[in-house]
Structure formats: C-alpha cells, structure tokens
Amino acid sequence: MSVRKEKRRNPRTGEVREKFRVDVVVTMPDGSTKRVSRDAPVQTKRDAEKFEKELRRSILDGTFGQKKKEAKPVPMFAEFEKEFISNYAESNNKKSEVQTKKGVLRNHLVPAFGAKRLDEIGARDIEAFKSLKVRQGKSEKTVNNMLTILRKLLSVAHEWGVIPFVPKVKWMKVPPNKFDFLTFEEADRLIAAADGEWRAMITLALKTGLRQGELLALAWDDIDLVSGRLVVSRNLSRGEITTPKNGKTREIPLGDDVLAALKRHRHLRGDVVFCTSAGAMFTKGESKHPLWRACKRAGLRRIGWHVLRHTFASHLVMRKAPIKAVQELMGHSTVMMTERYAHLSPDVRKDAVRLLDRAMPHGHAHAALTSGEEVSKSS
C-alpha cells in the first residue's frame, strides 16, 4: 500500500508513536521508476491519502522538489475596490452603473469592509453588515442591492486569483413590490388635463409603457408613423444617453390614439420628439412638474412617470393580454418581473379552470350523466 501506519519508538524515552507514512513508486514516461517516501504532513488517514495523490502528481509533472512560489499578499478591501472600479466596472458597465457602484462602495461597503483583507471577509461579516444596514433603516431591497455589488467584487477577485473562494451571501427576503396605477377612467382624465405638447408625452407613456428616460431620449428616427411602430434603442440616465435598462432594444406597435397624438405633436425643432422650444432635450426634473400640473387639473393624486408605465402593464393584463407579450413590450429581462401584474386578472385563472368543463364532448358528458343516473336509480 502507498499509505501505511508505522509504529516508531523514541530511543530516549522509549515512547511508541504511530505515524502515517506515504511510500510512492511511480513509473515515469521514459520507463524509469521513481520512489519517494514521506511522512504525511497531516496525520489522519484521509489527509495522508490526499497527500499521496498530490505527491504522485508532482512526481509525474516534474514539480516534485521544486520550491513553491511565494503567494502574493491578499489586498485590503479598500485597496482592491479601486482596481475593481478601474479594471472591471468601467470597462463592463454603463456610466450610470459605474456611478452607482462607486456610491455604494464609498458610502457603505468600504466603511464596513475597507480595513479587512479580502480573504478575511466571511459569511459572519456579511451577516453583521446586513444587520447594521437594517438598524440604519435601509430597506431589504436596498440592502440586497449593496450585497449584489459586494458579491460581484468578491467574485471578480476570485476570477483573478486574488482569493481562493467567494463567501456565501444570503439575500434578504423582500416583500412583494406595491405599485400604483391609474384606472382606465383616471388615465383618460389625465390625458385630457395635460398641457398641449405634454399631452402627447403622457399619451405615449400610458399607451407604450416607455420609461421616463426612454421617453426623453426618443428621437423621430425611432418612430415610423406610416407602419405604426416605435423602436426603443436609447435611454437618458444621469444626463447621459445610454442603451435601455437591460441593454436590449425593443419594438412596440403603436395604436391609433398614440399615432394621432404624435402626428399632432410633429415638429421641426430638432431630432428629439419631446424637447424645448430651442430643440434641447428635457431633463427628468423639467418633465416632473407638467405631469403634476395635469394630475392637479384632473383631480388625481400626485404621481410620477413610472406610474404611467405601471398603468400600461396593468391595463394590458386587465384586458387579458398574455404575460409573455407584456414582458416583451415592457422590456423586462425576466418574466418574473412581469408576473407581479398577474393578480390584476383573476379571470385568467377562472377561464383556465373552465377549460376542464369543455374537455369532454357534450354527447359523452350527457351519456356519462345518464349512466350515472341509471346506476343511482338501480341502487
């Protein structure tokens, strides 16, 4: 056997001890043999057997007896954070995402983990961080967003060979998102109450589900008024024109109400659909107050542009549109994001169950019923 237990007597004390000894004989590629005997560095049978395999492998690959390279010291979190931003985030993320990462790292993660080496951060430290943020009043979703950035940084460190493994991250349970939306009647009132050119933007938001940044970045080249379709390819984020939120373009067919509103709104002030008199793109702040004025005139609660997006999805589901179609129109990366609207259409589940009533042809159902009645009478 390659691994055996040997008894050894101490010549001075006479004490007898047992040790695991590894004795390896390896046939080399050139036909010669090489024998190596060593005491197992860890004296358990399992570790001795593991050492035997490592020893045999090192003899075959020629690394046996060579000095191991000294491992580079593991950097501190605060030190690696700068490399993570410059060498990973700035080349793989949009500018807005880089700014978000910088903010979370600066305000939350570096204060908590900055003085630790990356390989010192474990599950216990992460749980303590979660507890701290909850005590500070952060929501479960906000804490999860911080944990996402932390885990990404540690995963990159692992991919680059800086740390041997990524500690386990347990996400916080997030309660279901509550969202506001307008009824069909409220949506009509809002459109009617909107100022001139803002009426077109509000109509487009309610009838296409575009995000506020997508509305502000929309160009006339993205719209085909003849075929009645719109391509979402740009988004305004932190003052920068970027791709849509999930990085994918999407096409949305336009209904008669939207086409009519856009044709009335058509202008030659610039390439952007919704702009100032000088053709400049509106900011998110500038588009907030016209919506609030329309809400006040319509006798509605004050809402933001995202409520119009929720309204679009809600109305589709209430009109029994398939969830998959709603997902594609909304530009959601997963259908799970769209399923939060599913509860608005209880008739869908009811209609699904009613399919069972139509599963059996009428004649067969009548025959089965008659047969059942006869059995009942005979009994």
Supply the key terms:
379 residues, mainly alpha, DNA polymerase, domain 1, hpI Integrase, Chain A, 3 domains, three-stranded antiparallel β-sheet, 15 helices, elongated
Characterize the structure shown.
The structure is a single chain. The protein folds into three domains: 59 residues, no CATH class; 83 residues, Tyrosine recombinase, N-terminal domain (DNA polymerase, domain 1); 163 residues, Orthogonal Bundle (hpI Integrase, Chain A), CATH 1.10.443.10. Helices cover 49% and strands 11% of the residues. Strands 1-2-3 form a three-stranded antiparallel beta sheet, covered by helices on one side. Strands 4-5-8 form a three-stranded antiparallel beta sheet, with no helix packed on it. The longest helix is centred in the middle third of the chain and has 20 residues. The N and C termini lie far apart (79 Å). The C terminus is likely disordered.
